[in-house]
Amino acid sequence: MRGPVRLASVAGIVALAVAVSVIAVLAGRGGAGDSNVSGTLPSRSVVLIDPTRNEVSDSIALDASPSLLLGRGRDLWITNAADKILLRVDARTRKVVKTIGLGMTPQAVATTADAVWILGDGYPSAPLVRVTPATGDVAEIARPGCCDGAALLAGDEKRLWISANDSVTLQRFDTESGRLGPTICCDVGADALAVGGDALWAVERYDQQIVRLDPDTGAIQAKVPFGAPLPPGRNFLGTEVLSAAVASEAGAWIVDSVKGQVWQIDPVQDTVVRTISVGAGAKAIALGFGSVWVANPVTQTVLRIDPSSGRVIGRIKVAARLAGIATAGGAVWVAVR
């Protein structure tokens, strides 16, 4: 039986009382496409990477360790699991504009045009909460019945998909009608979920395959192996062994922290296009500015990958304790715990 794997999906950061100080961090070039930080970045912060220069340019100091990080437009959303809050940061002005109490521990986060969706903790079912960005109002919308302690959440403008780590069931939530769909037993023990290119992708970490599902029905459309299944003895690796995934019309990308690789999946042929080495310990991935971005706390770097060639075109030295990564407000943001 496979051990549970915690998704940091998408990925994250926050603070309870937030002392915001914008710190200019100059970066010096260390070779083609590389940069090294000349100053010391604070722990418990979010770091801004300028994608036009592949350099760390600023950071926002926080008062507590972050948990989840998600960007949309000019908004950067940061959660703090310990203090059960959500922060809204204006990524252009680099200021915290709203602190929202959730009353529960956030496990996963997703956004639509007019809402931020939080999956909280709770047994036997976890609450799905809607946060209104303009007002900060928090409302419990549903209690998904698909899985105990649900922790995986992914979706687009029309629907969200919910699952628990390693669960073989999924449940759809319609964001327009506010209704939960039926629980689907799809025989996919998901460790990460991603939606993009009109497809729902579920990563099975220990089986080393990514499964393409119909985003409306949850029906399996294809199974794409991306490596040999891990032997049962590897189950001891625990929750810090992560699979994370992102997807768009151009395909899906999976990062594996143990093997230190990113697999790129062709959404038309449903095959592995290429395998990209990113170093053991890589644990968070994002799309933006025509690139794939991968954060690796072991090497203390963020790697920028050209999706058309698979070539690493930037290695940005940041700091240890890297966690989530997201794009917002014309920049790449990285969580530093």
Task: Describe this entry's structure for a reader.
This protein has about 325 residues and is an all-beta fold. It has a single domain (about 25-335), classed as YVTN repeat-like/Quinoprotein amine dehydrogenase (Methylamine Dehydrogenase, Chain H, 7 Propeller), CATH 2.130.10.10. It has no helices and 30 strands. The chain has strands at about 25-30, 35, 45-50, 55-60, 70, 75-80, 85-90, 95-100, 105-110, 115-120, 130, 140, 150-155, 160-165, 165-175, 180-190, 190-195, 200-205, 210-215, 220-225, 245-250, 250-255, 260-265, 270-275, 285-290, 290-295, 300-305, 310-315, 320-330, 330-335. The strands form 7 sheets. A 6-stranded mixed sheet has the order 1-2-28-27-26-25, with no helix packed on it. The chain has a 4-stranded antiparallel sheet with strand order 4-3-30-29, with no helix packed on it. Mean pLDDT is about 85; it is low at about 1-30 and about 235-240.
Short description:
With 337 residues, this protein is mainly β.
Question: What keywords describe this structure?
Answer:
single chain, 337 residues, mainly beta, Methylamine Dehydrogenase, Chain H, six-stranded mixed beta sheet, four-stranded antiparallel beta sheet, globular, disordered N terminus
Major beta sheet summary:
6 strands, mixed
* CATH hierarchy, class: Mainly Beta
Strand content: over 45%
Low-confidence sequence ranges? 1-32, 235-241
